[in-house]
What we know:
The chain has two domains: 2-149, 3-Layer(aba) Sandwich (Rossmann fold); 165-341, Glycogen Phosphorylase B (Rossmann fold). Helix 9 (274-281) crosses helix 12. It has helices at residues 15-27, 43-50, 70-77, 115-122, 132-142, 185-197, 216-224, 239-248, 274-281, 294-297, 310-321, 324-338, 343-353; strands at 2-6, 32-36, 58-60, 82-87, 98-103, 126-129, 147-148, 165-172, 204-211, 231-235, 251-254, 285-289, 305-307. The protein contains 13 helices and 13 strands. The longest helix is centred in the C-terminal third of the chain and has 15 residues, at 324-338. With 355 residues, it is of the alpha/beta class. Helix 7 links the parallel strand 9 (204-211) and strand 10. The chain has a seven-stranded parallel beta sheet, sandwiched between helices. Strands 10-9-8-11-12-13 form a six-stranded parallel beta sheet, with helices on both faces. The protein is 37% helix and 18% strand.
Amino acid sequence: MRIGIYDPYLDDLGGGEKYMMTIAQILSHKNDVFIFWDNSKDLEPLKERFNIDLSRVKLTKNIFSGKTSFISRLLESRKYDEIIILSDGSIPLLLSKKLFIHIQQPLQNVQSGNLKDKIKLTKVNSFFCNSLFTKSFVDKKFGTKTEVLYPPVDLKPKRVTKENMILHVGRFRVRSVGLDDYKKQRVMVKTFKELVDSGLKNWQFVLAVSVRESDAVEFDEFKETLAGYPIKFLINKSNDELWDIYSKAKIYWHASGYGEDLLMHPEFAEHFGISTVEAMGAGVVPVVINAGGQKEIVTDGENGFLWDSLDELKNKTLKLVGNEELLKKMRVSAEKRAKDFSGERFEQQVEGMLG
């Protein structure tokens, strides 16, 4: 089959881009796969960061850019047996034999009731999402049943000695989805400093973050506020380097959505939580916010802890810090749970749904 794939954020290094390009990699084994994108250099950081093999994938003119007319897009789309699109909720009118729409985040403000939108919906063979959390919103907005295809998580733990380390992995963004601190890294840093001030000793907080050049000044200013505390940043590390640090850590923190009105803005919560699964796969016990996709990954008290307040975050972290047997028990359960989201599972689902 001839398959076209479009991700409008391909020049970013996010989980959605790993998701879409892994689909491209899988489908390219048995199909002719084309990426609608104009700059091949944008793929290089993705391939390096996520170890994705796109050697069988071809780039073709981006028919979804503003430079392509509506008629040209229609005519080009007729050449494809399938087109797969990462969408923000908008649906293009295309003439491919099949159209699959992937949505990564909950949709609150998408309207789909007019005649034009109804016609577009008839062209969609299937919607698929990255979590039950996202699915619950997409189903309501489009009045359709959506399939869940959890993101691919390639588990590559390394057997090294664990250290007294709390870890967080995520992008540092001055602004993302309308928030100044989407990943709540400032919140977590403040909380760790309070733990240290209250007597926590011989533990460090490591934040492995990707930083864009446009955010570098603000990031440097942020780091200056942490002098004197055992807080360390690892910047723009490769996938293999991240597994080194995952494998050394004991506890994993995640806080996206904290302090936000998630009824009004569910997109402020983590839509799934790939880094949480990766950490668990390396035997790192998650202590993560009880919101968004995190609740689908972690069972509180079994393979990690969920929290609703910063006091809970502190207390549940200290519970692990002070109980090595509990830490070891949860570590085993976390590793077992992470395997439910393996890359092998993703490949089988992709071939069944889209192949």
